[in-house]
Amino acid sequence: MRLLAVVLLLLSTATPASAADYPAWARSGSAALTQFYDNDTGLYRTTNWWNAANALNAELDADRLLGTSNGRTHAATTYAKHSAGGFLNHYYDDEGWWALTWINAYELTRDPRYLSTARSIFKDITGAWDDTCGGGVWWNRDRRYKNAITNELFIAIAAKLGRVTGDPSYRDWAVRGWSWFAATGMLNRGNTINDGLNAACQNNIGPLWTYNQGVVLQALVELSSLTRDREYLGTAHRIALAATRMLSVDQRVLLEPCEPSCGADGPQFKGIFMRGLRDLHRADGRSAYRAFIARSAESLWTRSRNSANQIGLSWSGPHDSADAARQSSAQDALNAAVSVGASFPAPRAPRPTSCVDRGSAATSGRTVTLLLCSNGFHGQLGGAQPGDQVYMSTDGLRYAVTTGAATPGGFWGRFRACLRIGDAAPVCTTHSTS
Fold it and tell me: Considering only the top CATH level, what class is 17-339?
């Protein structure tokens, strides 16, 4: 993974509430997303098969919120061109994205074909469940890796189908899937979810992708509704709070660990998290969630947008390039802002916290310090200059540290504080929060 260029700015410049017109922004963003749709292929130019499912999902949500019709129209076209293959392929997670999209399409249009397809996809994925690691579904048909996202999708689809159809077998699968998932250790001590399991069926300490924190929120919200058990919501809240603290720029704007270079898949992830946070807020609302959604949507629109209303990878800006993955991910955030009735919140005062360790890195005669806390990082820098790349890393990942005080982010154990000046090699020192 490349160096994560640190955003050495505090997002404290408030936008007046009257300037944040989320419905208008969502409408303009949706119009820009539509330009990527290819009627000849029934997919979206510039992106891949699984991304297309998410892009279509974003357009369907925009139809529901804004009264547009692009999602319905594109769903019909995509279905006509690809339904013969059942939306199945080598990857069970790809299939899961399409199942969620067709459930969404069914709930919007009541076209029974869409629901039937979602059920057929889910049936295919159940064939990937076996006793390896005590249960769970495989990532793909090679059956070599059990990961978080495929199993989160499996649980979410089962719970949604249980709600929509009333068939108790789906409820049983959802409960069984979550019981297995919760026992695997992929949900770690910091209340975030790593990428998957290693050959010993243990948490592989893989990346903390935002979409792994988002799909599980949708799954837990659906499970709570289906079972009338609020314990699922309690788990969802712990994950949401940890994710918004750790995977963000100063807890204001969502950040992907791979930024500023995330390949073809990574640009899609953040919008998926925003869908999950939206669902959790609607089920059991908290003002912090609405504020986080509002700030992320405002930032992407004012800092990462080009003249064609296309959004870049980093929602803190600047705009880098445009494609359907970036655009549909941003559309998910704009849709979420409209859905939760967002208004731009007042600036948040720093919260005091006690720090027990100081990390530092020195090079070229300068030293940058990072204040660390017993249960996470405080995010306060000393000695940094414009153009520096400063970050902390743990378990092979790098996280941005910003210039203001912030609530602890849930790190534990050993970490490295690093400084890079210009093109020089980064200088890192190892520290511990324990």
Answer: mainly alpha
pLDDT digits (tens, 9 = 90+) for 413-424: 445 555 555 556
Q: How many CB atoms lie within 10 A of CB 2?
A: 10
Do residues 232 and 175 make contact, with C-beta atoms less than 8 angstroms apart?
no
What's the chain look like in SS3? CCCCCCCCCCCCCCCCHHHCCHHHHHHHHHHHHHCCEECCCCEECCCCHHHHHHHHHHHHHHHHHHCCCHHHHHHHHHHHHHHHHCCCCCEHHHHHHHHHHHHHHHHHHCCHHHHHHHHHHHHHHHCCECCHHHCCECCECCCCCCEHHHHHHHHHHHHHHHHHHCCHHHHHHHHHHHHHHHHHCCECCCCCECCEECCCCCECCCCCCHHHHHHHHHHHHHHHHHHCCCHHHHHHHHHHHHHHHHCEECCCEECCCCCCCCCCCHHHHHHHHHHHHHHHHHHCCCHHHHHHHHHHHHHHHHHCECCCCCECCCCCCCCCCCCHHHHHHHHHHHHHHHHCCCCCCCCCCCCCCCEEEEEEEEECCEEEEEEEECCEEEEEEECCCCCCEEEEEECCEEEECCCCCCCCCCCCCEEEEEEECCCCCCEEEEEECC
Tell me how far apart the terminal alpha carbons of the chain are, to the nearest angstrom.
26
pLDDT 10s digits, 236-295:
999 999 999 889 877 789 999 888 889 999 999 999 999 999 999 999 999 999 999 999
Query: In the predicted model, is pLDDT for residue 56 greater than 90?
Result: yes
Backbone angles phi and psi of 47, in degrees to 5 = -145, 180
Structure tokens at 208: 């903390």
**Rounded CA separation 188/167 (Å):** 32
Give the integer Cα–Cα distance in Å for 431 and 434.
9
**What's the pLDDT tens digit per position in 203-219?**
998 889 999 999 999 99
Q: In the β-sheet with 427-432, what is the strand arrangement from edge to edge?
A: 397-400, 389-394, 414-420, 427-432
The whole-model pTM stands at 0.80
